[in-house]
Amino acid sequence: MALYVKAAEILQKAEKKQGALKTLVYDSKFSNIKQLFALVCETHKFSSILQEVIEATKLLKQTKLQMHLAKVLVYDLLMGQGLKCGGSWKAMMLKHRSRLQAELARMKVRQKVSRNEDLLPAGAQRASGDQLPRYVRVNTLKTTVDDAVDYLKRDGFSYLGQATRVDDVNLKRKDFVRDLHLPEVLAFSPRTDFHEHFLYKAGHIILQDKASCLPAFLLDPAPGSRVIDACAAPGNKTSHLAAIMKNKGKLFAFDLDAKRLATMSTLLLRAGVTCHQLAHCDFLKVDPDSPQYKDVEYILLDPSCSGSGMVCLRDDASDQDEDQARLASLASFQLRCLNHSLRFPHLKRLVYSTCSIHRQENEDVVTACLQQNPGFRLVPLLPQWPERGLEPLTQCLRASVSRTCTHGFFVALLEKAAGHGSSQVTAHGPSTCEKRPAGSADESGASETEEIQTPAAAQTDGTNGKKKKKRSRKKKKAAAE
Fold first, then answer.
1. Could you name the CATH architecture of 212-432?
2. Any binding-site annotation on 455?
3. Is 355 noted as a catalytic residue in this protein?
4. Domain segments of the chain: what residues?
5. Which are the contacts of 394, defined by CB distance < 8 A and separation ≥ 6?
6. What is the pTM of this model?
7. CATH match of 134-207 with 3.30.70.1170
8. Does 302 show up as a binding residue in the annotation?
């Protein structure tokens, strides 16, 4: 019953604008985050339909339930995979099941539809039913793509080969394909469930949206390198990085929440990751010049964002003024994280990604960062990818339901420009890519002025000091004579 109580609590907080669903779910410290996230998303999507059924059957009056708790219970009872609770709660809901089912059926008859999704408002139908494929990433730390495909074929799935077009992922029943762009990603029909499958339980496959696989794939850290996953929970990207590194090198993963780190540790253990070091601390407080982190060459930065790219989290009726204030706050935090990441002296490449569709969190953040860090440049990504960053940042990638058959996503790859190598940073002191995170335009400007002037000032001070010492020695020599 804890699942339903927590889901109801999150829905109530979201309704009061106390946070985005995704953030509320991950901050809940619930033991099974994926299960909770799925229930919250689906209940939120069908919220108006569920409320109508509940009110028509007078369920609240007869059960004394609160509306949000009733919604999550009725969703699983009528539309989900069945109630996941027992005892008196399950007995109570089963007692009213026939009346609830009858009311849902009457709604379909009145609207002349046959599917639950068809009851949704037009905008919600476009969002939900874009019916994204079920993507899985083959975990190459434990198996190969060919072996995973062979196992799935023996398990009754029908392999259609590698996709040749984006829309080849519109699959039915037990068909599946290898992805067009990412060689370790397989696509299945939308409602394929792997939670009880051997390959998932054994860590051979990871349930991960295709767009979410882009950051690690594009960062492509070499085996043996030192890497940071700056905002690591829940850990899917961390395990992907470890697979690309072949478990060789050192992978630092940061998170502020101890419980989320513990959950992540379990996930990484199942995935066979051994090169990681989890850190229970704020990434913004990490010293880039510390002996432990100064040799980091690659950083994956996927900071907190609005989650607006997640299909189930879209809300066209949200308060625009409140949203703009929240986006401004998020963008400021994201820019601080990005500026801080570029201060690591031996950094070669950094991937910045969000599951947001807002320019303010994506292209605007990257543009501001590049203006403040001229020692880095954007790297053009995957020329064959169908959706690019908004002008003028077309080197970046965007993803969407309509263009890439994925959740909404944004990815940018920053690389240290020629002439700004780590050897120069070590020999000649801080470069422009090591500026302090800017809190405002004025502060940023002051920081740049100080850093441009400091080397010259240091050189002048050094020269004057040497002259003074020489004059002092001459005076002492003369006095002695």
1. 3-Layer(aba) Sandwich (3.40)
2. no
3. yes
4. 2-128, 134-207, 212-432, 440-472
5. 388
6. 0.71
7. yes
8. yes
Quote the pLDDT of residue 21. 73
For residue 336, the number of C-alpha atoms closer than 13 Å in the C-beta half-sphere is: 15
Question: Tell me: the pLDDT tens digits for 382-425?
Answer: 999 999 999 999 999 999 998 999 999 999 999 998 766 543 33
- Single out the catalytic residue among 312, 355, 396, 405: 355
- To the question of whether residue 337 is assigned a binding role by annotation, the answer is no
Fold match flag (134-207 vs 212-432):
no
* Residue 187 backbone dihedrals phi, psi, to 5 degrees: -120, 135
Higher pLDDT, 479 or 36: 36
Buried b (16+ CB within 10 A) or exposed e, 428-457: eeebbbbbbbbeeeeebeebbeebeeeeee
Cα-based torsion angle of the residue sequence 8, 323, 331, 13 in order, rounded to the nearest 10 degrees: -20
Q: In the 3-class helix/strand/coil scheme, how is 252-305 assigned residue by residue?
A: EEEECCHHHHHHHHHHHHHCCCCCEEEEECCHHHCCCCCCCCCCCCEEEECCCC
Residue 85, marked binder: no
Dihedral sign for Cα atoms in the order 15, 17, 21, 27 = negative
pLDDT band at 448 (very low <50, low <70, confident <90, very high): very low
